[in-house]
Amino acid sequence: MPHLDKFAAALIVVAVVVGFLAPRDRHDVGPPRANPAAAGGVARTAQAAPSKVAAPPRKKPPKKPPFNLAKAAAAARAVSANELGQVPILMIHRVMAKPQASLDRSTKELYDEFTGMAKQGYVPVTAAEFVKGQINIPAGKHAVVLTFDDGSITHADFDGAGNPKPDTAIAVIQRVAKENPGFRPVATFFVNRDPFYGGSKPGIETMRWLVRNGFEIANHTTNHKDMRSMSKAEVAKEIGTDEKMIEDATGKPATTFAFPFGSLSTAHLDWAQHGTKPVKWDFTGMFLAGWKPSDSPYASSFDARQIPRIRDKEKIKEDDCKQYCSTAWLEWLAKNPDKRYTSDGNPATIAFPQDKMIYLYTRYREWACPY
């Protein structure tokens, strides 16, 4: 469905104001903090007060493969691995040759940004891979999550030969991947009713094409309504009907969910994550609308029900993008490489400098590879 640009922009402004009033260390998001609400980050989003509900215990990871700690630590040190570092999760709306609204991105802007990230060593993972901790990228590389909201035709459409049209998001991603080996052509699409409406293929076929080609289809509710004032039954209907559409198209349930406008209440953390009627769902991760990089999924401060994203935009005055949008954050992470997620390339370990051991979520201790 079309995004309500003015409303969404206003909500982002609210998020920025909340961030401005937060403690002045808001840009120092390197080591995950034991109390994210006090840090003014993870627990604060557009319209949302800090949650007072503790995050539910995460499932214990599968039994780890054996590894030689000394060798693994030496290899991790060689690439300055920090798998407790921050991960930028970009929130993107319409993509077009000539943007028409403030949330739009031009094809060239997206191409230039993704190419720049590829040159810096960023490797995309899907939102589902991220929340599950399945960040299997080469040593020395940095994880990034590309998310697209609202199922716009500008994200995925095809020419007469069945190839992605050049100005679409998927075409840009595939072009950057082809020109920069190692940049995985994957992304997550949070869809509403009638996704990719008006395209050359019915929405159900487009969703199937995306899944076949490694992309993720995720839940964004049916009608993209503000959920704060909804009852439990209304929340269930909004999420459940969208979930049924996704399962009918892809043959599997959605792993992740994004709150429309980033709006949530404390109650919604439970109502939205699990459902039984009319369709059962169990989201592994739920995403907000701003305004900072996310903590590592291996960190004790990571709350899978309130994962922040970054608005995809250059450094402009609007909505304080000079400090809080994607260009500004990517520049900051480049200047502070010890704060960002850097892989050790070993799926059997979670590697990080020794002094960050206190920030590791306890269930991952047997995977720990401090150096």
TrEMBL record:
Protein name in the entry: Polysaccharide deacetylase
Say yes or no: keyword tRNA-binding present.
no
In which domain of life is the source organism classified?
Bacteria
Q: Which SUPFAM superfamilies match?
A: Glycoside hydrolase/deacetylase
Give the GO biological process terms.
carbohydrate metabolic process
- Could you tell me which residue ranges the NodB homology domain spans? 142-371
Q: Name one Pfam family in it.
A: Polysacc_deac_1
Q: Which GO terms describe its molecular function?
A: hydrolase activity, acting on carbon-nitrogen (but not peptide) bonds
PANTHER family, per this entry? CHITOOLIGOSACCHARIDE DEACETYLASE, PTHR34216
Q: Where is the composition biased (Low complexity)?
A: 31-56
Query: Where do the record's region annotations for Disordered lie?
Result: 25-64
Q: Which organism is it from?
A: Actinoallomurus bryophytorum
What are the alphabetically sorted keywords of the record? Signal
